[in-house]
Amino acid sequence: MHFIRNNPSETLNLWSQILSKSDLAHVLAPLFQPNQGFENFVSTYKHVIDSLSHCETEIGFTVLSKFDIRSWLTTPHSNTENCRNLVESIFTGLTTHPYLPDNSTFMMFYDTLKLHLRLVLVNRLCGMLQHVVYKTLDVFSTTPPSSGYLGRDNRSTGE
Questions:
Q1: Long-range contacts from 92-100, C-beta under 8 angstroms, 24+ separation
Q2: What is the pTM of this model?
Q3: In this structure, what DSSP letter does residue 101 have?
Q4: How is 48-60 classified by DSSP, letter by letter?
């Protein structure tokens, strides 16, 4: 596995193996290293987000926590377009999975996505603010308030 783990061109192949071999997923997931060769960082992140429904939440959390957003943001690959694409993928992750506040593994997964979004916003606020505001408004205009996406429904229950 050493040759796969240290080879950026094998990152998506390893992710495919994690998805297809559920009996080995817990062994393979820790070997996933998306931070090598940052040129494919955003497309790899998107691929992982788009295929999360095919794996256990714990595996999804393990893999997502491997993405070093902070380091990626210091590279030339973190241009405005890539940041927007990353934010799109983060929003996809936040809005396509049902909110399960009683499941601690899911909450770690969900908190990881929120941390990723926070890191992009803190480091690229000026370039991303308008995009995030529009995306947030779009999500809330199509999501019933009781679904709990993007956080808890803080409205009083007496309405």
A1: 92/46, 92/49, 92/50, 93/49, 93/52, 93/64, 94/139, 94/149, 94/150, 95/139, 95/143, 95/149, 95/150, 96/53, 97/52, 97/53, 98/147, 99/147, 99/148, 99/149
A2: 0.75
A3: T
A4: HHHTGGGS-HHHH
CA distance 5 to 123: 29
Q: Dump pLDDT digits (tens) for 125-157.
A: 656 666 667 677 776 666 554 444 444 444 334
Query: In whole angstroms, how far apart are CA 44 and each of 92, 95, 106, 115, 156?
Result: 14, 19, 21, 18, 40
Are the CB atoms for 116 and 90 separated by under 8 Å? Answer: yes
Q: What is the dihedral of CA 62, 64, 69, 75, to 10 degrees?
A: 100
Q: What is the pLDDT of residues 51-96, one digit of tens each?
A: 888 888 888 888 899 999 999 999 999 888 998 899 999 989 988 8
CA 117, CA 45: separation in Å to the nearest integer?
Answer: 13
Q: Which two tokens stand for residue 54?
A: 């095919």
Instruction: Give the rounded percent of residues in the chain with a pLDDT score beyond 90.
Output: 16
Q: Residue 110 and residue 132: Cα distance in Å, rounded?
A: 17
